[in-house]
Write a structure and sequence with these properties.
Pfam families: VanY (PF02557). Keywords: Signal. It comes from Arthrobacter flavus. This is M15 family metallopeptidase. It is a single chain. The protein has nine helices and four strands. The chain has 276 residues and is α+β, with helices and mostly antiparallel strands. The protein has a single domain, classed as Muramoyl-pentapeptide Carboxypeptidase, domain 2 (2-Layer Sandwich), CATH 3.30.1380.10. The chain has a four-stranded antiparallel sheet, sandwiched between helices. The radius of gyration is 17 Å and the shape is globular. The structure holds zinc ion.
Length: 276
């Protein structure tokens, strides 16, 4: 793929990538001295609810219930299997098993804003990332991969870091997922940056060229913006204009064409504003 020869950003990588993101956002970004320890924190008891009986038109759940044409077999409704591209992970739906590890992880061949630590993805997601970054480059938009897969212990350290930094779990829960509850642990989620490092993992990233391009085009490669603006009551997290999630093109296209913003709505699952 095309590569921009200059300005390949190397942020204190693992630190930024690990310490930040509910991905988990950071405003401001932490410094090297903020490095969290890698001790595994306490694990909250999983809290799950049964799926609601209502689902919006155009969702997989509605299609499944009505048996209409939208219930195309190509659109998976497997939101419970952690190995499925359509698994739904949120504050009411921890990974099962909670220390789930993807069977295969690879480092995508794209510009990294880190040193490669915590930048791997599942092969299907990695391939789609390579395709998306190449398409962006063709439009003179230069994306970087800031953070990909994070293991259970790494997420535990990330969450502990934010709790210690902000003094309370309640505050940290707005932008950092507890271990076992992070999409990053699926190997399907990643955070993008812009190659000049503008607003990396910060709310102002939404105004960058990179964020605008991704918002308009990511669905063509099987991605969705997982934490849209104003949807914290459903997703559990503040808006993250950098956090994308691979679901496959069938699902991303179906969501886009039907105006469905969140996986919770698409599958007719309960809102997940908190850990319940
Ligand atoms: Zn993220």
């Amino acid at each position: 793929m095309r590569r921009r020869p200059t300005r390949r950003l190397l942020v204190t990588a693992a630190i930024l990538a690990v310490a930040v993101s509910g991905c988990g956002s950071s405003d401001p970004a932490p410094t090297a001295s903020d490095l969290p320890s890698l001790a595994v924190g306490e694990i909250p008891a999983p809290a799950q609810r049964s799926p609601s009986s209502t689902a919006p038109a155009g969702s997989a759940a509605a299609a499944s219930a009505s048996g209409d044409a939208a219930s195309d077999d190509s659109v998976s409704d497997d939101y419970a299997d952690p190995s499925a591209a359509t698994v739904v992970v949120n504050k009411r739906r921890p990974l099962t098993p909670i220390e789930f590890t993807p069977a295969d992880l690879i480092l995508p061949d794209v510009p990294l804003a880190t040193d490669g630590v915590n930048a791997t993805l599942r092969p299907d997601a990695a391939k789609a990332v390579e395709e998306m970054f190449a398409a962006a480059a063709d439009d003179d938009v230069w994306l970087t991969l800031v953070s990909g897969y994070r293991s259970y212990p790494v997420q535990a350290a990330t969450y502990d870091y934010w709790v210690s930094r902000n003094g309370s779990p309640e505050e940290a829960d707005n932008y950092s997922a507890r271990p076992g509850y992070s999409e990053h642990q699926t190997g399907l989620a990643f955070d993008i940056g812009q190659d000049d490092g503008a607003c990396t993992l910060r709310s102002c990233f939404r105004d960058t060229t990179a964020a605008g391009w991704a918002s308009a085009n990511a669905h063509e490669f099987g991605f969705i913006l997982r934490y849209p603006e104003g949807r914290q009551d459903t997703t559990g997290f503040l808006a993250e204009s950098w956090h994308y999630r691979f679901v496959g093109t069938d699902t991303s296209s179906a969501m886009r064409s039907n105006g469905v913003e969140t996986l919770e709505e698409f599958f007719g699952l309960p809102d997940a504003p908190d850990y319940g």
